[in-house]
Write a structure and sequence with these properties.
By secondary structure, the protein is α/β, with parallel strands linked by helices. The protein contains 15 helices and 15 strands. The structure holds 6-O-phosphono-beta-D-glucopyranose.
């Protein structure tokens, strides 16, 4: 397969929080990988801006270390890293004071795209955005990139949107949800809208239900303080799973363009019914053996934060009325598995009799790992003995089907950063989308609080709380998708 790298003009990218964890793990390695692929042109500049007492050489050492550790062993020609480092600069800067801002201003070139990546906590968004403006750094070529968490409820998200809007147009704001940058997530749109096969069946008449699972084996690591305030509902459901739901459920956008796509996603979020309390299960993992439980990990013995959430959602529109969407996500589960299962209805009548066997068609879209698609179809079981039906998977792994490029797809951040530079907002969340997602999430969290609900315990490295299985079984259905 031919790799098509769309060139961009030289640009300036300033990473606030340039010495932080996200910059080291994701942003810098992503830029380096794009550089190796020939997409970051010579003459571009990557400027770290942070409070750390570093000079340019010290920052370059950090950048080189981050690349060695996190760029996935990308094999580059000799000298590539050295050439990449020539593009790197550093400014010691105080985000909420004046120190360093005039140095930064002098480094920024005229007449080229300048992107400001706010890889810092949301509390600093206002200060940084304001100083970018007062230092005369805003023009038509300016873009600002912000990370989640974009607020912790509707009110705080509205406040952040209002702060950013004081300094930038919406067309300049890039709100990252890194799930949208994943190749396989974009593939959801390709599968739905690039094939004739699925779309005619993609509605409540033919689809029994849809399951979205994002299961993680990892825990909360060093982010206990943030996570204990957020929980799985705010950390994953309100954003990543909500985006997956939108892509699966939205109407076909007229074009693959920012507002066409985002308008359709917004309609899905706004059509979501409030979730009934008995349609949600919260869980918190217990320790097993040497493994600490959630409360020990966060160092908060009475924490009632959920590390798992499963729920049943309904979308009240013509396409989906009557088809439930089951969503679940959790930490320290038995396997890492992000998968969407579209479970079709049974054939209306079995000409082979009710005892012949067979099963409903299921389209399984594996987002990670082992990215691919499986279509479960019914065929005849081989051999004599009458017509017995059996369910078999038509299985496609992208790695096998696409060769080396399918095996090593670009990281989400590679795609998203280059989209910022190209000025393409299609894979970024618009302000109204984020607010609508919070408007749906807030009453769920408020309900837990009002009812004094505590999460159900589940064993670390299990499939999650038993009540989540019950949520399905009550409806005569089963979860699919977490395989140890
Ligand atoms: C982040 C969450 O947004 O996504 C983390 O804050 C989570 O808690 C991570 O682990 C999952 O991302 P990925 O790309 O590993 O599936």
């Amino acid at each position: 397969m031919v790799s098509r790298v769309i060139p961009v003009d030289p640009f300036d990218l300033v990473v606030f929080g340039g010495t932080g964890d996200l910059a080291r793990r994701k942003i810098i390695p992503a830029l380096f990988r794009r550089y190796c692929s020939g997409q970051v042109p010579e003459g571009s500049r990557i400027i770290g801006a942070a409070r750390s007492e570093l000079d340019r050489d010290g920052f370059c050492d950090m950048v080189a270390g981050a690349i060695r550790e996190f760029s996935g062993g990308r094999a580059c020609e000799d000298g590539t890293l050295e050439r990449f480092l020539q593009m790197v600069d550093y400014v010691k800067l105080d985000a909420s004071g004046e120190d360093g801002w005039s140095e930064l201003t002098h480094l920024i070139k005229e007449d080229r795209t300048r992107a400001f990546y706010l890889s810092v906590g949301p509390a600093l968004f206002g200060d940084i955005a304001g100083r970018i403006r007062t230092h005369g750094l805003v023009n038509d070529q300016t873009r600002i990139v912000v990370e989640k968490p974009f607020g912790h409820d509707l009110e705080s998200a509205q406040a952040l949107n209002a702060t950013l809007a004081q300094h930038f147009h919406e067309r300049q704001i890039y709100r990252i949800d890194h799930y949208l940058g994943k190749e396989t997530v974009q593939n959801l749109m390709a599968v739905r809208f690039g094939n004739m096969l699925f779309e005619p069946l993609w509605n409540a008449q033919y689809v029994d239900h849809i399951q979205i699972t994002v299961a993680e084996t990892v825990s909360i690591g060093s982010r206990g303080e943030y996570y204990d305030r957020a929980g799985a509902m705010r950390d994953m459901m309100q954003n990543h799973l909500m985006q997956l739901l939108c892509l699966i459920a939205m109407e076909p956008p007229a074009r693959f363009e920012p507002d066409s796509v985002r308008d359709e996603k917004l309609k899905v979020i706004r059509a979501l019914d409030p979730v009934e309390p008995h349609h949600i299960v919260r869980g918190q993992f217990d320790g097993t053996g040497d493994e600490p439980g959630y409360r020990e990990e966060v160092g908060h013995p009475r924490s009632t934060t959920e590390s798992y959430v499963a729920l049943k959602a309904h979308i009240s529109n013509w396409r989906w009325s009557g088809t439930p969407f089951y969503l679940r996500t959790g930490k320290k589960l038995v396997a890492r598995s992000s998968v969407i299962n579209v479970v079709f209805k049974d054939a209306p009548h079995s000409i082979f009799g009710t005892d012949a066997g067979g099963a409903a068609n299921i389209l399984s879209i594996r987002l990670q790992p082992n990215e691919g698609i499986t279509m479960h179809v019914t065929i005849k079981e081989p051999g004599p003995g009458g017509m017995r039906l059996v369910d078999v998977p038509l299985d496609m792994s992208f790695a096998e089907a696409l060769g080396p490029e399918g095996e090593d797809p670009p990281d989400a951040y590679e795609r998203l950063i280059m989209d910022v530079i190209r000025g393409n907002q299609t894979l970024f969340m618009r302000g109204d989308e984020v607010e609508a997602a919070w408007a749906w999430t807030d009453p769920i969290i408020a309900g837990w609080k009002a009812r004094g609900e505590v999460p159900k315990p589940y064993d670390a490295y299990s499939k999650g709380p038993l009540d989540a299985d019950q949520l399905m079984r009550r409806d005569g259905r089963e979860w699919r998708g977490i395989k140890p």
